[in-house]
Amino acid sequence: GVGLSVHGQYRIATNKTMFAMPETAIGFFCDVGGSYFLPRLQRNLGTYLALTGARLIGPQVAIAGVATHYVPEEKLNSLLEELLSSSPEEIEKILGSFSVPIQSLTSNLDPKDTLSETNLKAIERCFGEPTMERIMAKIEAEEEKEFAKICLKLLSKMSPTSLKVVLQQMIRGKDLDFKQCFDMEHKMALRFMKENDFFEGVRALLVDKDKSPKWNPANISEVDEKQVLRYF
User: Fold this and answer.
1) Is residue 209 part of a domain?
2) Is 142 a domain residue?
3) Measured on CA atoms in the order 218, 35, 13, 122, is the torsion positive or negative?
């Protein structure tokens, strides 16, 4: 999974690749080093992905910077054969010869694509705020109405506690090194295992599958700073 691959030096996406960090939907947080790699994505994109659980498909994974290269599926076997028969010093050259340049991928994006320049500007405007309340206010006032509507719909399904904790995770992770991020996540995981929302989220989405979790607290306004700080 992404927990193993995303920390590698070379990360190849194909048209069949799907990336998401949907943990806020089960009352958890972005683990597997999400504290490290998500805050380092461009233009608040990591915070957007962490909070909304939005999916990236195929070329989007490379455009976002989650993958380092995009290679069409039909070229993958040939790429593997060439890599296996070459020296480590040739890896970058080989990947470059098989991959599609990021600039070519971005130039072919639909204007409605999540990663279109228009929507990236909206993400940059909305997801750089230091509190969930301010992020929600920015989204509600966002000029890109359709994109804002999608964001609000996604966020409305998530655990309010997870949203506030994950936002703080992104803010802190930006200034931590790799080991410090994992140390923080270990502490966070232990705390989540003591709280209601993780068990309720797993029940609603993975066990009973009624998709109707009863979050407690039920609204972000009810999650105070003291509650959030317990996770850190």
Assistant:
1) yes
2) no
3) positive
| CATH number for position 71 | 3.90.226.10
Total domain count, the chain: 1
- Contact indicator for 216, 160 with CB cutoff of 8 Å: no
Name, in order, each residue with C-beta under 8 angstroms of 76's C-beta and a sequence gap of 6 or more. Answer: 12, 14
Per-residue pLDDT of the chain (232 residues; tens, 9 = 90+): 788 899 999 999 999 999 999 999 999 999 999 999 999 999 999 999 999 999 999 999 999 999 999 999 999 999 999 999 999 999 999 999 999 999 999 998 898 999 999 999 999 999 999 999 999 999 999 999 999 999 999 999 999 999 999 999 999 999 999 999 999 999 999 999 999 999 999 999 999 999 999 999 999 999 999 999 999 9
Question: What residues have CB less than 8 Å from 15, skipping those under 6 apart?
Answer: 58, 59, 72, 73
Residue 221 lies in a domain: yes
Q: CA nearest 231: which of 171, 151, 179?
A: 171
Residue carrying structure tokens 């140390």: 183
Residue 138 lies in a domain: no
What range defines the domain where residue 181 resides?
A: 2-109+159-229
DSSP assignments along 41-95, one per residue: SGGGHHHHHHHH---EETHHHHHTTSSSEE--GGGHHHHHHHHHTS-GGGHHHHH
CA dist 39 and 69 (Å) reads 20
- 61: its two tokens: 């994974």
- Residue 64 contacts residue 47 (beta carbons within 8 Å): no
